[in-house]
Amino acid sequence: MSVSESGTHNADAVSPNVERDPVTGHPRPPRREFKARGSFVRRCEGCNLPELNCLCPYQVKAESHAQVWLLTHPLEHYKPTNTGRLIGDVLSQTQVFTWYRTAPDEQLLALLDDPRYAPFVIFPDDQPDYTDRVVSLAAVSDAKQSGRIPVYILLDGTWRQARRIFRKSPYLDELPVLPLRTERETRYRLRKPASRAHLCTAEVAIELLRQGGDTSAAAVLDDYFEVFNDSYAASRSYHKIDPPTAAMQRLAACRT
Predict the structure, then answer these.
(1) Res. 256 pLDDT band, cuts 50 70 90
(2) DSSP letter at 244?
(3) Region (Disordered): which ranges (predicted)?
């Protein structure tokens, strides 16, 4: 057997599980194991925060008339700094759907057609092509008075990803657009925003709940977000928060 024949024989004998180039079919060299920043940190299986400042003792449920549905970019699910999941920790009726451009979630489509709900897409009114769809918080009050459940649909991802979700999801095109108007500036410290006016997903939900009349739920979620924000930031510098902060104490008191 020649050297060339031997090489061909060995290539054909490569395990079928080896990754291959989709064009040539040739086996690709093994890639190094991916190690994300913070991948060596011991995390709580319940809250996914570093065990040093676990969030679990401060999880408190709250009730709200309005619901929050998250349409989440796939990459956000892998980010422990994602704040959308905090909403589900507090509001048990929260729905989370993964966004794929060519494969809309069937459950989401069914819920959008359910007459019990009055869904609103939360997005800025900064472009002229959908001004006819823009509504104010008065529409939320009208939905309540008609016996329907207001739903805030949050596009969970980076600002660029959120714009793509908004523009590339035909099933959202007929829904009213509710821009969030607030003087609140972000307190989020785990990612650097382009502007202090750019709120993270949990902060948007807090403001919507507060302005829509679900003030108790907004207060609990605000405290929970603050504890998450402080705990994660402290853990990055290997600092244990002790004694508990005021927000921690309020949430702990709600659990007793």
Answers:
(1) confident
(2) P
(3) 1-32
Cβ-contact 148, 115 below 8 angstroms: yes
Cβ contacts of 76 within 8 Å, gap of 6 or more: 82, 84, 156, 157, 161
The whole-angstrom separation of Cα 218 and Cα 60 is 12
Burial 8-21 (b: 16+ CB within 10 A, else e): eeeeeeeeeeeeee
Contact 73, 99 (CB under 8 A): yes
**Mean pLDDT across the chain:** 86
Query: Side chain identity at 154, as an amino acid letter?
Result: L
Mean pLDDT value of segment 163-188: 95
The radius of gyration of the chain's CA atoms, rounded to the nearest angstrom, is: 23
Residues 70 and 201 sit within 8 Å (Cβ to Cβ): yes
What gap in Å lies between CA 169 and CA 149, rounded to an integer?
22
All residues at 6 or more sequence positions from 135 whose CB lies less than 8 Å from its CB, including other chains: 120, 176, 177, 178
Q: Report pLDDT digits (tens) over 89-118.
A: 999 999 999 999 999 999 999 999 999 999
Predicted confidence (pLDDT) per residue in 40-90, tens digit? 678 898 888 889 999 999 999 999 999 999 999 999 988 888 999 999 999
Tokens 């897409």 sit on residue: 121
Q: Does residue 12 have a pLDDT over 50?
A: no
Does residue 243 have a cis peptide bond before it, meaning omega lies within 30 degrees of 0?
yes
Tokens for 185, please give them: 């500036």
